[in-house]
Amino acid sequence: MKTEFLHMMILDGCFLVQIVRKFVNKEQRDINDPVFNMDCMFQYICHDLLLLENQIPWFVLQYIYELTVKYYQNPEPCLSVLILTELSSQPQLSHNCRWYLDHLRGNNYKEDESVLHILDLIRTSIVFSFTERYEKPFHDANTQLIASARIVPLMSPLFFLSRKWPSWPPSNMVST
Predict the structure, then answer these.
(1) Is the pLDDT reported for residue 136 higher than 60?
(2) What CA–CA distance (Å, rounded) separates 72 from 37?
(3) Where are the domains of the chain?
(4) What InterPro entries does the database record attribute to this sequence (predicted)?
(5) Which residue has the higher pLDDT, 124 or 11?
(6) From the CB of residue 173, how many other CB atoms can be counted at a distance below 10 Å?
(7) Do you find a cis peptide bond into 34, omega within 30 degrees of 0?
(8) How far is CA 25 from the centre of its chain?
(9) Do the Cβ atoms of 91 and 61 come closer than 8 Å?
(10) What global pTM score does this model have?
């Protein structure tokens, strides 16, 4: 039972690594490849890649990728870049995947080690885009602005009641 599970995980991992490679490097595709020639087949595979029950541990995919990368002539980017490039072809994921791809390229792919599986990679790309948008301004150029800001006290009920407010509606608006 354990060996069957391991065989299945390794076979699925090999399939995933090759699909990702063939998507990025079109010259590696076979002319009659059903994955890329049948309508919507590639979209179904991308959908299945994101199902929780289909997740293969990242270290398994990474190990298979590293075993096979030496057999290819052109230097290939890291596995996370290949997968994000593939999944960025899907309209629902394209914005976050591209945003995170730019970040990975700028940081020499250091976040690659903390990924658990493909779904976690996508989750990281989505969460990353929010943290970059909402946390970054507080740490960069706006630090000076935030440090010099004054705290405005809330209006207390006593202060509110002690004021003389104009009557509503104004007398010139009331019809007689």
Answers:
(1) no
(2) 24
(3) 2-148
(4) DUF247_pln
(5) 11
(6) 7
(7) no
(8) 22
(9) no
(10) 0.65
For residue 3, give both structure tokens. Answer: 């060996």
Please say whether the dihedral angle defined by the alpha carbons of residues 112, 114, 119 and 122, taken in this order, is positive or negative: negative
Sequence-distant (6+) residues with CB within 8 A of 62 are 79
pLDDT in tens, 51-62: 888 899 999 999
Tokens of 25: 């490097």
Confirm if 80 and 109 have CB atoms less than 8 A apart.
yes
Taking the C-alpha atoms of residue 109 and residue 107, their distance in angstroms, rounded to an integer, is: 5
Task: Compute the residue count for the chain.
Answer: 176
Q: What is the mean pLDDT of the chain?
A: 76
Q: Which two tokens stand for residue 46?
A: 């991308």
Q: What percent of the chain has pLDDT over 70?
A: 67
Helix, strand, coil fractions of the chain, as percent rounded to 5: 65, 0, 35
